[in-house]
Write a structure and sequence with these properties.
The protein contains two helices and no strands. The protein has about 100 residues and is an all-alpha fold. The protein has a domain of about 70 residues. The chain is rod-shaped, with a radius of gyration of 33 Å. The model has no long low-confidence stretch (mean pLDDT about 90).
Length: about 100
């Protein structure tokens, strides 16, 4: 083996080691990113659940406020109660199917 071939082989080995090092680093980074993604997905799912609960609480508060209105808002109260009755009827109809 000539001196130039040895030099080329040495350069090739160094580049191959560097490439293997970079590969290992990227694998490690990929694993960290997957864990971070899982954490964020869990956080998003929790926040969506919290949001849904808050929507329900808000709707209930609106209903409670509507029910406890003054005489001037009786018409709105009747409309909302009618809407709620229709929603319940739809739910019952779906359950009967």
């Amino acid at each position: 083996m000539t001196e130039e071939e040895k030099k080329l082989l040495s350069t090739f080995e160094a580049r191959l080691r560097h490439l293997m090092y970079l590969h290992d680093e990227l694998k490690h980074e990929n694993t960290e990113m997957k864990l971070l993604l899982e954490e964020k997905e869990e956080e998003v799912a929790k926040l969506r659940g919290d949001y849904h609960e808050l929507e329900i609480v808000y709707a209930n508060l609106k209903i409670a406020k509507t029910i406890s209105t003054t005489d001037s808002e009786v018409k709105d109260t009747k409309l909302r109660l009618s809407k709620l009755v229709r929603e319940v009827d739809k739910c019952i109809a779906l359950l009967n199917e």
